[in-house]
Design brief:
The chain is built from eleven helices and two strands, in the order αααααααααββαα. The chain has helices spanning 2-26, 29-42, 48-54, 59-70, 75-88, 94-122, 126-131, 135-161, 164-168, 220-229, 236-245; strands at residues 208-211, 216-219. A hairpin with a 4-residue loop joins strand 1 (208-211) and strand 2 (216-219).
């Protein structure tokens, strides 16, 4: 009852606010997809009738799957802690590296959680959903876990692409701007050159991806390195200037 009456309403409200005040202004499509998929898949669990439909007659199972799945969002706390350190540190501190390690571990844990829920909890019940002619709910649950799992895998790959050393070491590259917001999704890992010497460019550095509001093209590997270096949180205009100088 606590999860249904308190946890889910607060969470879905947060996702709605984040889409309106972060995803839309920042044009962060990936985070918007993440939020909308989770909200849509968990919405039935807000009521007993909806939970029974989603759980093929078992409301308690539906609430349990919902609550366990939401444990993956614990990584958000670590991401905000990392952002705070990026905004306040003036030099390297071991806590920054420790937080980065915890962030990666929390995202790697998602790669265990979602397959477990999918292959151990959901897929074995396909016969029950088929018998009760509730196959649509089954498809929605499977699709939701696959989509969020793939997004998590993508973000984990981007986090690790900059290298272990960059994860463990804080390097202040640009001035902090007051009022800077948190940025993730499409902007993850923007800019930076990691350990390469100036002027060097590896072949994979030439792979590019769209750069948010400005419609610029930024090397994908550089975007990953900038996430671990900390300049990932700089506003768009400053990041573009940074790339032009690099």
């Amino acid at each position: 009852d606590l999860w249904r009456e308190v946890g889910l309403p607060l969470s879905i409200s947060y996702f709605a606010a984040d889409v309106i005040f972060y995803c839309v202004p920042r044009r962060d499509r990936l985070i918007a997809v993440h939020h909308l998929v989770i909200a849509f898949c968990h919405f039935p669990a807000l009521t007993t009738a909806g939970a029974e439909l989603a759980g093929c007659g078992d409301a308690a199972w539906s609430w349990r799957i919902s609550a366990v799945g939401y444990t993956a969002e614990a990584s958000t706390v670590l991401m905000n802690w990392r952002w705070y350190l990026l905004q306040t540190l003036e030099e390297d501190w071991w806590v920054f590296g420790a937080v980065n390690v915890l962030v990666v571990i929390s995202w790697a844990a998602r790669m265990v959680l979602y397959p477990y829920l999918l292959f151990v909890e959901i897929l074995p019940r396909v016969g029950e959903y088929w018998a009760r002619k509730q196959i649509l709910f089954f498809i929605v649950m499977v699709a939701g876990h696959v989509i969020i799992g793939l997004l998590s895998l993508y973000w984990l790959t981007i986090m690790l692409r900059g290298g272990v050393r960059s994860l463990l070491t804080f390097r202040k590259k640009t001035k902090k701007n007051e009022g800077e917001g948190f940025s993730f999704g499409e902007d993850i890992g923007r800019g930076g050159h990691g350990g390469e010497k100036k002027g060097e460019e590896r072949q994979e550095d030439r792979v590019t991806a769209a750069d948010g509001d400005a419609g610029q093209k930024v090397p994908l590997l550089q975007r990953a390195r900038d996430w671990v270096d900390g300049t990932f949180f700089i506003e768009q205009p400053e990041s573009i200037k940074h790339h032009k100088k690099a």
